[in-house]
Amino acid sequence: MDLSDFILRHAAFAPDKPAVRFEGRTLTYAALAERIEAAARALKSELGIGRGDRVAVLAVNHPDTLVLLYACARLGAMLVPLNWRLAVQEQLFILTDASVSALVVEEAFAATIGPLREALPEARVVGLDFAPPDAVSFEHLLARGRRLESPTECIPPLCDRCGGVVQRRRGERARRAGRRRVARRRKA
């Protein structure tokens, strides 16, 4: 079970129910689930994205950001959303620090592509709503993913370094200790 199963369950239960409404367009749960599956297939086969890889997105508001989030979760990859208000040098620091494998860019932020290619030559670039030079558009990537037959592997997006640490609520230990003291006094 992974994060994208939430969408798959809604798609099975109410496929025609609206999942996303954006700029006058409506995307149903069935259509969203289909886009997520196609994106996951394409990210895996075309860009080589897999477990532990990072995919950055630089966009204002776009429904395909959700598609990327769930597709990355399906592959065990992590989505790195970039703040579009940051300077290009700050964005580049985040991208290099995160060691992103791919960057999905909205057309309004195409100026970031040049400096990115200099800083991270191995990172693949995808245009969210356009086709950048020497790169592919997200719609073209989805079209390739729809043609692929192999299903994506479901990988839970859990941190491998969590170590099962469970934190208690503040005061929980004190309440338990207080109960023990009361119980000891009753026995005495």
What would your notes on this structure say?
45% of the residues lie in helices and 15% in strands. The chain has one domain: ANL, N-terminal domain (Rossmann fold, 3-Layer(aba) Sandwich). It has 7 helices and 7 strands, in the order αββαβαβαβαββαα. It has a 5-stranded parallel sheet. It has a two-stranded antiparallel sheet with strand order 1-2. The longest helix has 18 residues. Helix 1 runs antiparallel to helix 2 and helix 2 crosses helix 6. About 9% of the residues have low confidence. It has 188 residues and is α/β, with parallel strands linked by helices. Strand 1 and strand 2 form a beta hairpin.
List the helices and strands and how they pair.
Blueprint: H1 5-13, E1 18-22, E2 25-28, H2 29-46, E3 54-58, H3 63-75, E4 78-81, H4 88-98, E5 102-105, H5 113-119, E6 124-127, E7 136-137, H6 138-147, H7 172-187
Parallel strand pairs: 3-4, 3-5, 5-6, 6-7
Antiparallel strand pairs: 1-2
Helix pairs in contact: 1-2, 2-3, 2-6
Query: Based on the structure given, which CATH architecture is correct?
Result: 3-Layer(aba) Sandwich
Q: CATH-wise, what's the superfamily?
A: ANL, N-terminal domain
Q: Report the structural category.
A: alpha/beta
- Summarize the main sheet: 5 strands, parallel
- Fold-level CATH name: Rossmann fold
Distance between the termini: 52 Å
Helix content: 40-55%
- Overall shape: it is globular
Mean pLDDT: 82
Please tally the helical runs, counting DSSP H or I stretches of 4 or more residues.
7
Radius of gyration: 22 Å
Spans of 5+ residues with little confidence (pLDDT < 50)?
155-170
Tell me the strand order in the biggest sheet.
4-3-5-6-7
Helix and strand sequence:
HEEHEHEHEHEEHH
Q: What is the β-strand count? A: 7
| CATH C-level category | Alpha Beta
